[in-house]
């Protein structure tokens, strides 16, 4: 684990050392065993029934959930005192990554173990946990989460579902409709959000058999067709008062804090899906012949495989770095703390920015992967007989799940600036340093004998670019910056790509000395590909932000700084890409 506890977003204002990050190479034997168990479950139990699941054989899905329970895969995040394993977030993310190759079934699993289970774990009373948690983590019951409504998606607090206390004071009568509920048709326990007296946003634990609760028809979806997505309709649904979850009027705490983990877990899941899809694309490139040779021998295809391999390396590095950050923070909380889960939730909330980054970056890596895998397949990528077509349809929801990528992009600078104004992070001080650097000529000295020295200097400069833009935006708009969404989105793209690149560079630097010469070459090649790509993305986003914020001489100065701060010598880029592609084609899989 990391040698120090980092604050959320601290990576933007400090230099992080290689030994301060957790990487996949740090997995314990126990974590590797859980990963193997999960992979074998998918291969032996899910894969043979993939077509049945896609045609919505939900009896089979429920049966498979019960088998997951028997293997302990539903209890990773549950406390030991209620029969759970209470393992760390790295293990939880590893299971989420490995289950992802199960296609639509992974959606049922992820919804159940994440947003379906965690509200009860974090906010349930002892009585509620004793009544429900054992059933959920064993697979006897399936859980679902009901926040979205027909007229409130991103605006979760705009929900219209109401809860009114019955005359005898024993029940709350819930009225309203919840939309797009994963596991809706077969869940046994729903976490439902409603406003008591149309005002106090509150969560409730609602059993499937509750009088007044009914399930709508299955939505006809673009992808993930084997998952259940329905409305949950509440017509004077009688919910016992003891089934209020958490505090009355504090439902927003549950909704948003659980979503942080949901975003993080989605990042892990889509990274696993990207590995799986990439392997299919590579195998097809080896098998398909045109002009008498495999298409994988063509430079146009090799470049795609190299770019995708490097991008997945970054996504994987980012996810497990974040797991390490969170686990190290949570490990400092004594288990006998009286308000343990309140402190625990604040520990996770500390990394809300990084959770949003994981969701956005990793889901967009998967998007790039499946798009190119379809392209590698050519016309056959459009045919249902080949898995590429299904990858393409299933991927699209991930940029909408757990808050759209646009909402998550807005959260990143929004939360950062909010913390800066509270004095929780010394952003203003670092902005002043970056502005001073902007106006001071510099000649970066790079020691070529030090691995990744150029990339580390680059990262220092990219952080300066971010700080200059953030400072300029706040100086011009002050507290109204929250309404300048185009600027916030551009600045977020800079922050996202810095975290991703830095995660990959630190991982590469940490593991380099343990690798064979061939593996060293591959890792070094991946870093070069990633650095070039990140610089291009950050440069574009930064220039966009500069034109949005500044004008005249200030614009000229900021643009000059961006050019200086995004300078990177990518000599050897083509050779690096060809090496990555050749190794991946030989292995016929993701190589890291």
Automatic annotation (TrEMBL):
InterPro entries referenced in this protein's UniProt entry, alphabetically: Acyl-CoA-dh-like_C (IPR049426), Acyl-CoA_DH_CS (IPR006089), Acyl-CoA_Oxase/DH_mid-dom (IPR006091), Acyl-CoA_Oxase/DH_mid-dom_sf (IPR046373), AcylCo_DH-like_C (IPR036250), AcylCo_DH/oxidase_C (IPR009075), AcylCoA_DH/ox_N (IPR013786), AcylCoA_DH/ox_N_sf (IPR037069)
Residues covered by the Acyl-CoA oxidase/dehydrogenase middle domain: 144-236
PROSITE patterns linked to this entry: ACYL_COA_DH_1
Cofactors (names): FAD
Keywords from the UniProt entry: FAD, Flavoprotein, Oxidoreductase
Domain Acyl-CoA dehydrogenase/oxidase N-terminal, first and last residues per copy: 28-140
Record carries keyword Flavoprotein: yes
Domain Acyl-CoA dehydrogenase-like C-terminal: 461-564
Superkingdom of the organism of origin: Bacteria
Residue ranges of domain Acyl-CoA dehydrogenase/oxidase C-terminal in the record: 249-412
GO molecular function list: acyl-CoA dehydrogenase activity; flavin adenine dinucleotide binding
Reaction(s) catalysed by this chain's protein: a 2,3-saturated acyl-CoA + A = a 2,3-dehydroacyl-CoA + AH2
SUPFAM superfamilies given in the database record: Acyl-CoA dehydrogenase C-terminal domain-like, Acyl-CoA dehydrogenase NM domain-like
Subunit field text: Homotetramer.
PANTHER family: ACYL-COA DEHYDROGENASE, ISOVALERYL-COA DEHYDROGENASE, MITOCHONDRIAL-RELATED
Sequence similarity: Belongs to the acyl-CoA dehydrogenase family.
Protein name per Swiss-Prot or TrEMBL: Acyl-CoA dehydrogenase domain protein
Organism in which the protein naturally occurs: Geotalea uraniireducens (strain Rf4)
